[in-house]
Fold FAD-binding oxidoreductase.
Amino acid sequence: MDATTAIASDDLAARLRQALGDDRVITDSDGLEPFLHEERGLYRGAAKIAVLPRSTEEVATAVRICAEAGVPVVPQGGNTGLVGGAVTGAGEVVISLKRMNRILGVDAIDYTMTVEAGAILETIQNAAEEKDCLFPLSLGAEGSCQIGGNIASNAGGINVLRYGNTRDLVLGLEVVLPDGRIWNGLRALHKDNTGYALKHLFIGSEGTLGIITKAVLKLFALPRERHTALCVLADVDHALALLARLKARASEAITAFELMSGFALDLASAHSGDAKPIADAYPWFVLLELSGSQGGNALRETMEEVLGEALEQELIQDAVIAESLDQAAVFWRLRERIPEAQKPAGASIKHDVAVPVSRIPEFLRAADAAVIAARPGTRLCAFGHLGDGNLHYNLTQPEGMDPQAFLDCWREMNDIVHGIAVRLGGSFSAEHGIGLLKAGELSHYKEPIELELMQRVKAALDPSGTMNPGKVIGTA
Amino acid sequence: MDATTAIASDDLAARLRQALGDDRVITDSDGLEPFLHEERGLYRGAAKIAVLPRSTEEVATAVRICAEAGVPVVPQGGNTGLVGGAVTGAGEVVISLKRMNRILGVDAIDYTMTVEAGAILETIQNAAEEKDCLFPLSLGAEGSCQIGGNIASNAGGINVLRYGNTRDLVLGLEVVLPDGRIWNGLRALHKDNTGYALKHLFIGSEGTLGIITKAVLKLFALPRERHTALCVLADVDHALALLARLKARASEAITAFELMSGFALDLASAHSGDAKPIADAYPWFVLLELSGSQGGNALRETMEEVLGEALEQELIQDAVIAESLDQAAVFWRLRERIPEAQKPAGASIKHDVAVPVSRIPEFLRAADAAVIAARPGTRLCAFGHLGDGNLHYNLTQPEGMDPQAFLDCWREMNDIVHGIAVRLGGSFSAEHGIGLLKAGELSHYKEPIELELMQRVKAALDPSGTMNPGKVIGTA
């Protein structure tokens, strides 16, 4: 950064302080540190200013001042994203939503909740539960991620099969636009066909079209029963057959249908200290959950029937139905620890792909073969949301290999894995988004006409290009 | 139309014929007639040319030829819309999708169906059912409306409470853009966070951003049981309380929760010849349906329990649970005949409003009082999708009044009813859209900033303004 920029930065900080108050603006390096951190350690932010507004109007003021100065802004939530979507370049200003963390209201008649963008996901889940409601979005980072970031990245998670992606859980939004004006789309309506779907444009745009400041969320009735089972499978094709049977028999009750490779489960078990509920070695495990609001025994009986038939027909080799909430929690802990459990096993190259559900086995066969052919000994740590056609197709380095040497294969592995997913009609980013990390993949895999449409949308809503530049569609 | 335009029109027709073949282009007045018709009789189209392509490429060719000639095009599906969204102005060209009516594939493993835009909704429902699947979109016009129009207008209907609006039922789209290029977004993925939600921009844009030519639809398991009840209520507040109980006890099973005023049901009964299942006069009726894929008796028992408790506590005055599919069909026929049954009762002024579910009673009290104060004797034919907060707040003229005199109050009544809905945080067009009919309401009720965002989107995707001009956001 040269002297001119440094002076401009001081000047900008002074203007922001004057407009918002000293405690809203951070410029010291200790204070800035958390805003420069990036979850995966792939990037490091370079901002010299972070603004922490306490209201939508303060966000609007900060954005307006930056826009007038021609300075790009980068919105930040809990900073738990996995694609570098909140990383700042030199001279860019962080706008953190962390102080706008209030639950503004829970309406148990309407089954809606109004929140500020900085509210922590877990706080929202708890606030819903207190009113006998469910906010179903659930994912690994829920203790620290913020709802604004979940919405901006259209987060997925473990309950999408039943309740949809974050997009499906948002009724209304308030957004600060790139010029600092406020769009009030904070409606609590299930039906509203009055013009273009602006709400959906902002959802999943990763802060490149505006800063989400408030949202109206959709709640559901709290299930009165929940049944969790862990199944053992010899073949991933059988997982599809099991899912089909469950859909036919208990469609609306299937809350989760998660696939885990035997290797992934072994890692998680070793890492968490939880014994595997089924000790033998098997190639695949499915964690499934049925839940319902009726109570009674019907759902449990259905689960037992379907699993019993599946055992008889050797679709599954074994199954354990959790007999307590504690046991169900162990099953889930094993599933959720997988990403972390990969760390002690060495370097990892991770993918977040989706294909049509029916093509999951084909994807796995093709990707496994191609990966092993390219780098023999690579350990396949595949797991994820089979019911949504979404796999975290993660690769753990061969034993004894130099970690950096494996990481140097990142590009090569991405090309193999994303190429196969796209060839099968799939996506190279199912739920994590694009950010900086996959902006190159976006321009590589998307047809020129789709890229052009996205660029036109970006230019229409952020003509000066100061809203989280370089993310999603890259630098215009 | 002056001579120059007429010549241009002949010339354009010749160019279209040359490119597409004679049988693709209609210019004779008998042939054009169906494309100039407008469902409500409020408008009449003025096009001299209708193009009936048989493929996406033919749509693209037609659009490109028109775009090069600077001639606006108006996409048409089944022409059953209620807001004049497919009406042509002089010199505009109809592009009808009726010949692109194929089901391209049903995948019962993926629970998806790929269709051409001109496929009739009922044909799609049946094709799903043949594979033991459900396509849940259901509305009055299903025998003639086309899926492309349903998607372009984000149709609602009777199953939104459980399955969402059309938007929620579409996984992928193929769209011919205003310049005649083709966007291939025909993906069958449940998760795909790769850039801006272009799909959602086209859904609900009423043909003003492009012409939808194909879609991948989301299917569900066919329910194995369905229980339908008609309840009698003394007070509309009780309907909310009944809905809350059902949500707590059978949330995921509630397929429909429809409100009908006593007057609306009387009209429908007189018109259809079906006796009312409950003979006495009551102010409100609720038609509710639970469905599930488990089979067994649990859901029926839950319905009986909830209705039994509601009777005891006088939330409902009476209830009939349909004992056969035939009886359930009678209940539904009464509900579905209401709009048609209004015709013999004289002139009608219709509204399609939404408010947060909890504010339905407040809306009804305020609107009833204001309407009666303005035009005493007006008969209140309110009915609709209470579970979604969506009412068709229809008004039937006072007995003996001159029909035209009542229709002259259209503007006044709209102002009253839409004003109250918007004041309660609601929408003046819940599921019918904007078209020509409500373009004025859109510019009246939307904040300038929202209108500006929509205009920017329109200009970005249809810079020459030739795609269904004047609809939704009016003439730029």
